[in-house]
Amino acid sequence: MGDGHASAGNERRQGRSTVTVRIVSWNVNGIRSVFRKGFSAWLQRESPDIFCAQELKAQLSQLGQGFQEPEGYHVYWDWGDRKGYSGVATFCRQEPASVRTGLGIERFDREGRVLVTEYPDFCLFNVYFPNGKASQERLRYKLEFCDAFLEHVSSLLESGGRIVVCGDFNTAHKEIDLARPRENSRVSGFLPEERAWIDRFVERGFVDTFRQFNREPAQYTWWDMKSRARERNVGWRIDYFFVSANLLPSLSAATIMQDVMGSDHCPVAIELSL
Fold first, then answer.
1. Among 5, 180, 207, 213, whose CB has the most other CB atoms within 10 angstroms?
2. Domain range summary for the chain, segments of one domain joined by +
């Protein structure tokens, strides 16, 4: 596990108290695997205010008697019906005002992909978007999930909600977001229809936080393990934080934590000064 930096805590701005909230998101590719690799110690060092995990590949009952929730965190889970597959979890120091799972659509919710925690200043969606590579059927499922998700968050936006969406989107948005765009133009994860959905998501009022601070190429969050692509940084940026435009004035940092090992993905993080 790589080292990070601790939560920024409280600061004074323009004569009033401002609280900086640090949120970290990571597709862990197996919660049991990262716990064996020192996840608990890494989380305590990193000490985010909120941590969101995707692709748990385990239900709570499978974690074993030795499993303990990290000290200082309230932990909430959403896992699917199928063991060893999908699943998301949110660890937060402040107890949320409310917690809910799913989109209210059974065929999506049975896979354990959406966990929503509400706080006084924003609503956080921790999402593991489907992967469309396996078949045309799964690609259709992914696109239908994306459309349902967009409709769901759009209704919250219309009522004035301040929204953070984080997780593994399983899609690289622009050519700058993957090492080999031309070679992957017909591969799920960079198909025109998948990229067009992110365009619609942005048009609806969501902002890619990382690109507010970094416009450089070769900034990736996932690498193929079989080809040792991480060593050569031949990767994809498919893990994101998006915020609704009404939260943009509060966005103070967005980073990719490429030095953190333990998964085929690396964590991403933002800071909100609220």
1. 207
2. 9-273
